[in-house]
Amino acid sequence: MSGGLLVAGTTSDAGKSVVTAGICRWLTRKGVSVAPFKAQNMSLNSFVTHEGAEIGRAQAMQAQAARVEPSALMNPVLLKPGSDRSSQVVLMGKPVGEMSARGYHGGRQAALLETVVGCLDELRSTYDAVICEGAGSPAEINLRRTDIVNMGIARAARFPVLVVGDIDRGGVFASFFGTTALLSAEDQELVAGYLVNKFRGDVSLLEPGLDMLRGLTGRRTYGVLPFQHGLGIDEEDGLRVSLRGAVRESVVAPPVGDDVLRVAVCAVPLMSNFTDVDALAAEPGVVVRFVDRAEELVDADLVVVPGTRGTVRALEWLRERGLAAALARRAAEGRPVLGICGGFQVLGEYIEDEVESRAGSVDGLGLLPVRVRFAREKTLARPVGEALGERVEGYEIHHGVAQVLGGEAFLDGCRVGEVWGTHWHGSLESDAFRRRFLTEVARAAGRRFVPAPDTSFGVLREEQLDLLGDLIEEHADTDALLGLIEKGVPTGLPFIPPGAPAAPAPTPAPSATPERTKEAL
Q: Which domains does the chain have, with CATH numbers?
């Protein structure tokens, strides 16, 4: 087979990322070589490929679902917000500068479209199928002229478009109809149909609405995916923690020892790669929660200061909220603190920043003997090393260059007492190291916590990706989806003008059977 599909959504967070991953895993299990693709991603959660390119973590996760190595081809444009109005532009895995939203949409789109179409063409020549993910909504009509990620790329590739809607939010039928009706006739020609996501209840009760939607739009619904708890899969910027379930203040799996271990993550501004704590939350008996008040650190056994795209801004925020003083008290009392990337930088003595914030010299929290200078060139690396006697793998994404002046060496950072700091993201995904680290934390916190000896983060991630594949295989019309991917856009799809009159109500449906439900979907 040879073809592709664009998974669009009625809104942000409709489920495009997980649906794309689910389709990739389903196709892979069928023996189809498949690659994910997102022309333009806006996210603070990113990943470093083996060739040293920075891409969105969602695309790296989708590549894992497809069982292929992630590459810059899969996410040629990445926008990393630095404020409400500007972002760092990462092109083909390398930063090319800061740009305002108006500047970005003001004239670079033609060249960017050529780049992203070239990447897509290269993937199409290598794989049997390419499953593209859109961004936001394809009906953002104010941005259609410069769109390179939704209908722009679909039209360039002549890919059919599957629109995903989150029924858990409500208004999914209006969203499907309105999304289609707001598109031009040329774009509507590519909208093949719809996929309902996060449904709770009896699908037969939904069928009259699906029939009416088809009458209104001339387009079918390709499946109804049930609401699924515990999908701790990397998305763009959703605050979702744990592979075992959405964990903030509840333990999903019981502890192995007598105590649980409580981890508080400081929810700093422009927080990036907070997926680092997923591996902690995957451990039985570890409770992970995000906090923004000093009193929430009191009962924490470990405090994590995560990465951030605004290190100086995060430092100011910690001081304003009293968290800086609370961290200093913890360090003095010998209670564990872990700083990762930007969180490591704020724990140092001072920061010299003429790149990110242009604030010049700023005093850090002084908890680690480290001085940080921001370089214009970004460090992108996939280091391998050793800590606590165990092999560790990670990845680095930072402008700050740390000069370590003392303490005990720790993953290219340092440790003083129970304060730890490193630029390495992803280190806690190394199972043996994570267990040793949590043992150290439990000892320092006085907890009778024992890490589970057999928890494998990689195995848990594979289980979650298989679950996504199962959702597609069991709840979507896979024959029809395969036809879309292989044969392209169905012919004869009608144009729906805005304000189109309502179709007559359908006749009452007969009692549903499993066969009828599958056929209706």
A: 3-231+463-520 (3.40.50.300), 261-452 (3.40.50.880)
